[in-house]
């Protein structure tokens, strides 16, 4: 199988590395010189320093070359650039091939999930999302992990499951695309809140409460947008939430932790090589809450911190004052 991965960030490169052990895999790198480094030196020093990539993995800086040869197209592009890249390749994608999104976020303005963007820009191509508790460096190091391929097409799901399954990476299928994508996107907002708790040193009890009530919020919003409640208790909801909130490898937790230490958001983002999707997704979550009439107190509070309206310390003081309702609700 000829597979092309567009995007040579940490997760895109990791998936390309795994796939290259069984398939003819080419990864497209936007950054100058990175394609040559991956192909010739078998390293990605910008996003995966210290890790050696398979000799079988090839890279290119030519987007059209990567697209035209694909039998499966995997998109590892951050949400803010996702549509633009698809627009650039729409005339070069071979007919009917599946398009798999690795991005965990929602498009600003339209509030669309990434598979919906695929449907808009590349009609006729079966869209799918690969999502779950997948920390790239652990998977590249060979540690066991589980992920989910989400698509409404059962035949495509089975095919992609067989293609993606590799070693200790266990691949499940799920037809609830909305639930899977929303869990992956919204958990990033809660991870910022969990990171703030760590930075403020408010204690494990507080952090556990915020993570748990955060799960309630993302479930409430996800169900209102068409996802199934049970999905948010699985790998793409609770599983991804736990990994992102607790791991020091998490970009979104890192942003929250630094905010908790009193640092300014622009300074934090300026020193990061990779994208923390939760920063943009927070605004989208608040806008969706407004549209759907949902309170979402954690999302709204994080939004105020990111907008500079309050400090992390003030945010946690405010969260303590939220009235306690019925714990079993609201979904």
Automatic annotation (TrEMBL):
Going by the UniProt record, its keywords in alphabetical order are: Cytoplasm, Lipid biosynthesis, Lipid metabolism, NAD, NADP, Nucleotide-binding, Oxidoreductase, Phospholipid biosynthesis, Phospholipid metabolism
Pathway given for this chain reads: Membrane lipid metabolism; glycerophospholipid metabolism
Q: What is its EC number?
A: 1.1.1.94
Its recorded reaction(s) are: sn-glycerol 3-phosphate + NADP(+) = dihydroxyacetone phosphate + NADPH + H(+); sn-glycerol 3-phosphate + NAD(+) = dihydroxyacetone phosphate + NADH + H(+)
The Glycerol-3-phosphate dehydrogenase NAD-dependent N-terminal domain extends over 3-156
Q: Which residues form the Glycerol-3-phosphate dehydrogenase NAD-dependent C-terminal domain?
A: 176-315
Residues that bind sn-glycerol 3-phosphate: 104, 132, 187, 240, 250-252
General function of this protein = Catalyzes the reduction of the glycolytic intermediate dihydroxyacetone phosphate (DHAP) to sn-glycerol 3-phosphate (G3P), the key precursor for phospholipid synthesis.
Q: Which NCBIfam families match?
A: PRK00094.1-2, PRK00094.1-4, PRK12439.1
Under what name is this protein listed? Glycerol-3-phosphate dehydrogenase [NAD(P)+]
């Amino acid at each position: 199988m000829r597979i092309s991965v567009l995007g040579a960030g940490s997760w895109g490169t990791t998936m390309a590395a795994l796939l290259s052990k069984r398939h003819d895999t080419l990864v497209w790198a936007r950054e100058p010189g990175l394609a040559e480094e991956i192909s010739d030196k078998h390293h990605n020093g910008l996003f995966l320093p210290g890790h050696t990539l398979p000799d079988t993995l090839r890279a290119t800086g030519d987007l059209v070359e990567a697209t035209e040869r694909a039998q499966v197209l995997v998109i590892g592009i951050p949400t803010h650039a996702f549509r633009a890249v698809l627009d650039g390749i729409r005339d070069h994608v071979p007919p009917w091939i599946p398009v798999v999104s690795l991005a965990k976020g929602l498009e600003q303005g339209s509030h669309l999930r990434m598979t919906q963007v695929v449907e808009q820009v590349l009609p006729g191509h079966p869209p799918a999302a690969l999502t779950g508790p997948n920390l790239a460096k652990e998977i590249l190091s060979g540690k066991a992990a589980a992920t989910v391929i989400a698509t409404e097409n059962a035949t495509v799901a089975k095919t992609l499951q067989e293609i993606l399954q590799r070693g200790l990476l266990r691949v499940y299928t799920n037809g609830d695309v909305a639930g899977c994508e929303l869990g992956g996107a919204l958990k990033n907002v809660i991870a910022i809140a969990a990171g703030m708790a760590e930075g403020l040193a408010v204690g494990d009890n507080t952090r556990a409460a915020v993570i748990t009530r955060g799960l309630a919020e993302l479930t409430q919003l996800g169900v209102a947008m068409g996802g199934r409640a049970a999905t948010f208790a699985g790998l793409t909801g609770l599983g991804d939430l736990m990994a992102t909130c607790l791991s020091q490898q998490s970009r979104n937790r890192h942003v929250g932790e630094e905010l908790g230490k009193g640092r300014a958001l622009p300074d934090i983002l300026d020193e990061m090589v990779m994208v923390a999707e939760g920063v943009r997704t927070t605004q989208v979550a608040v806008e969706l809450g407004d549209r759907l009439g949902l309170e979402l107190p954690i999302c709204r509070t994080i939004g105020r911190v990111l907008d500079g309206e309050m400090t992390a310390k003030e945010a946690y003081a405010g969260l303590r004052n939220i009235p306690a309702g019925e714990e079993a609700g609201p979904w």
